Amino acid sequence: MSPVRRRGPGRIGVRAVQLGVPVALLAIWYLATTRWGVSRILLPNPVAVAQALGHVLATGEFVADLRVTLTELAIAFAISATSGIAVGYLVSRTSFRIRAFEPLLAAIYSVPLILFLPIYVLWFGLGPPSKIALGATISFFPVVLATVAGFGNVDRMMVTAARSMGASDLQLFRFVLLPAAFPVIIAGARLGFTVALLSIIGSETLASLAGLGHKIVELSEGMEMPRMFAYIAFVVAIAAILNIAVSRLEAWGRRP
Amino acid sequence: MGANDTAIRIRNVSHRFGEEGEARSVHALLDTSFDIAQGELLCLIGPSGCGKSTLLNVIGGLVAPTTGTVEVLGKKVAGPMPRDIAFVFQENALFPWNTVRENVDLGMRFQGVARAERAARAERALAAVGLSEFADHYPAQLSGGMRQRAALARALSLQTGILLMDEPFGALDEQTRMILGEDLSVLLAATRKTIVFVTHSLGEAVFLADRVAVFSARPGTIKKVIAVDEPHPRKPEFATSAKFTALRNELYALLHDEIRKTVSAEGARADQLGTLTPGALS
Amino acid sequence: MTAATAPRRLAARPFAARLLVIAILLVIWEIAARWFVDPLFLAPPSKVALGIGSVFATKGVPAAVGVTLLEVSAAFAIAVAAGLAVGLTLGLNDFSRRSFMPMVLLLYGLPQITILPLFVLYFGIGPASKIAFGVTHGTFPIIVTVVAGVQNIKPILLVSARAMGAGPWQTFRHVIFPHMIPSFFTGMRLGMTGVLLGVLLAELYVSTAGIGYFTTLFTQNFDPTRLLGLVGTLAAMAIVLNAMVRRLEVRFARWRDPRG
User: Fold this and answer.
1) Are C159 and B95 inside 8 Å of each other by CB?
2) What is the ipTM of this complex?
3) Fold for domain C52-252?
4) pLDDT at A211 over 90
5) Is the pTM of this model over 0.90?
6) Quick one: which of B82, B234, A224, B154 has its CA closest to A232?
7) Main-chain dihedrals φ then ψ at residue C3, nearest 5 degrees
8) Does chain A have fewer CB atoms within 10 Å around its N or its C terminus?
């Protein structure tokens, strides 16, 4: 009906809450550990966490584990992206194949694939290969499903038009199919990347000897709370940075 | 019939969306005063954005006007008046999760009709619009024309003295509009309600209305009122008569310039905006 | 995803093609496990299937699987209740939504796996930490979908109700709530996936009890038969639970206009 204008006070109120809540939580955290007697064994002092984080960053002790995690991520994603796109393209070629296999792939993806981890540990041990295998396995699916959707939904009219002008298979792929499917595939690849990162950190947490996930576990077992919290913050930040980087890449890839 | 009884009294109603001086404020309706008699069918017609729908919403209490007042059956309008006014909208306003019958029943529930009476009223209303057979279908299963019949049944079941209809057939094809228009005329001749009917269609206005109020371009007001002196229910033959054609031509002449003005204003604004975005100009 | 096309040959039906591919994969697995791969690492599907009994005969396994199922159920129930409550609150109250939705989305996007060790530290190695971790994974999708279901309602429906004299409670009960139901069930489907993930992650993490104990045990003992049997059982459980929720979703989305 009538367009409602956002009245000034409403907006200010929203901003106030959005700033106020985190500040209040931080204050409660600080007070809980300094004045209210919450055990430091369970909850570290936020100041101590900040100091620990500073120390970790300054000494660069995170580098070794970060390198392990990022390497695993890179290899896993490289595997899943290439195989996902390849398989996705092949499945998308006929509507029969799509109808037959897309549901199968979607069904497999709906199972918690983390269950594969013990099997991979059995096969590859506790080192990086089992993490890479799990990361690749899980991130394969968003990529393949997006590729099938991307190539499968290319407007038939465009294909017909190109063929009528004499396009060869390779030309059709390069000039029609690929550009049309590209945005969808890129979105799927981005999702795959995020999923790969989470899977790898997850598998490092569950069964590993190195890597950022493992580091957090190690610190929790040693009850080194400030450093553990520092590493948690660090990993969250790394994940956020990677996600933003990948979003930028996706946006760049989708530019008109 | 009591043609001297005024059902709706509109006095100096104007409306502006947003605040004066704001970039996004829109002057939708200029100072308008008008009387609508009881039992009359009045059509509001005019170019896009002229304020006819706004006026309808003001009459119905859905929008509080920036200036002016509306009196309905002697009472000042300060909000929706579900016992006196029922709406039929253009867009499908039926609840998709309910069957047609449930939709009709729900409207009466909102109004406050007792349970015992609702079933009987629903049956009568559905029969009146010819949907008895489809009462237990869901709106998604019906054609556009049938959905609007259902919306009409819902409004009729409320047994209000006044019916406000905002381009109820606007989304339908020409043939369905014709049929529904004829049926509506028959129906309304029997019920003697006061009806205010917004439309874009010249033929529809002449066919259905006792009077047609023609709006000027935005910001609009009622430019001229044309009377259609023809008894209800209107026969299909009326649509091909000379009288009909003359009236339609008169409407066309009145509207043509206003429509042109509206279109060129939209074009100028589009240049300013740089791109045409849907809804930016409505 | 269904029906046969004109040719009636069995091989031409997508369903049959799927079965064929699965069958071929099973055969490859069987052959590889029997004759090519070291039995310490891989057991053939036939052996795994027959060995399910011995998996469950292993002391503690049935209890562990049962407890896991209970944890999933409890976490799901809590996530649904919490998700619905928070979702409705945010969806109906404009100020709350604008204030808190960004926070909700931020939390939703965090890699929760990083705080799994904290959960176990705080809640112990028993069911509590598993349920809690499942709840945190399952609640967010439900909140988001419920909010969307309330926000997405076509304004004309609310206007229409108001014009007919509906009060706030009537509008909620007869218009907003029914409109939100399909989104809610979609949220529940996503929530179940989340709960399964959360509970299983927590279970696998705790290697001293529960499922995690047995996966570690079978791995360390190089017992692929039992490991695959256990993992297969859990996968089957997940599939069944997901299917159940999906069927609910389909059933409650019946009125949905296919055009959206």
Assistant:
1) no
2) 0.88
3) MetI-like fold (1.10.3720)
4) yes
5) no
6) A224
7) -15, 150
8) C
